[in-house]
Amino acid sequence: MTPDSALYAGSARYYRRGRAGYSPELPSMLAGHLGLDGSGRFVDEGCGPGILTVPLAPLFAEVFGLDPDPAMLVEARRYADEAGASNARFLQARAEDTASVLAGPFRLIGFAQSFHWTDRERVAAMAFDLLEPGGALILVHHTLPAHGQPPIPEVAAGSALPPPPGPDPPIPFGDIRALRERYLGSVLRAGSGTRNIPGDLHRDLLARTSFGPPERFLLPGRRDLIRDVDDVVANVFAQSFSAPHLFGPRLERFTAELRELLTAASPTGRFWEWPGDTELLVARKPAESRP
Ligand SMILES: C[S@@+](CC[C@H](N)C(=O)[O-])C[C@H]1O[C@@H](n2cnc3c(N)ncnc32)[C@H](O)[C@@H]1O
From the CA of 288, how far away is ligand 1's center (Å)? Predict the structure, then answer.
């Protein structure tokens, strides 16, 4: 197993259930802003279980989801089949290796919460080369980082927690974090090492590439996500820093303690999740190639 595919070992089957989707307005906003009309090709880099690939599939003739983790690709295929996205193909590859598994050009290349895992300058340069003139690179994030993790570049200025829509309490991320730290320590883990967050903002990095400064949009995230205990357990196991493989033989004990904590935290067994709004960065390749 490569280091990339070890990051989320054991997470894939929890991922789609556990992690919130992006703003429901994202597909129509992108279609309007970029003139997407069902033609052209899209590559979703670090697609995971297809969280971005599948909702954007109707906007293109062909879509490709790439991820180094084969278990994520199985889930992505399942999601695409459920959604009738017959124009979607999923391939095992790191973003860095895109040009060796797919020939361009592409109208859109996307990274949804995956750019930080890559050699960013290298993949941005590669994306520029693979895009058709007028094509775009997009980066998509929730504005609130999950579980009190250190914010990745771009999400630092997260939205404030709005009032809950009903009686259910927010997910007790602070308590979950304390429990996780008892098992895994306070330094965030990632794969077989520790998590290494890029020190600069993605938009500053993009500004230094051939793309130049990206446009930035905030789209309204979902405020109506009500989760049960199994959903929150899935959310915990869908994070690289609390992926199942990290707990080794103590996984069962951790799961039992997590369930106990959650049951005590909500008399109804339900929680409100607010992932923040959806931040979208759009970096365009000029329509006319520069000489
Ligand atoms: C936080 S998940 C995001 C999944 C999905 N894009 C989403 O929006 O939920 C990050 C994904 O990036 C993948 N990944 C890790 N290193 C990568 C790399 N070098 N190239 C491409 N994907 C990578 C992981 O396997 C994982 O599926």
Answer: 31
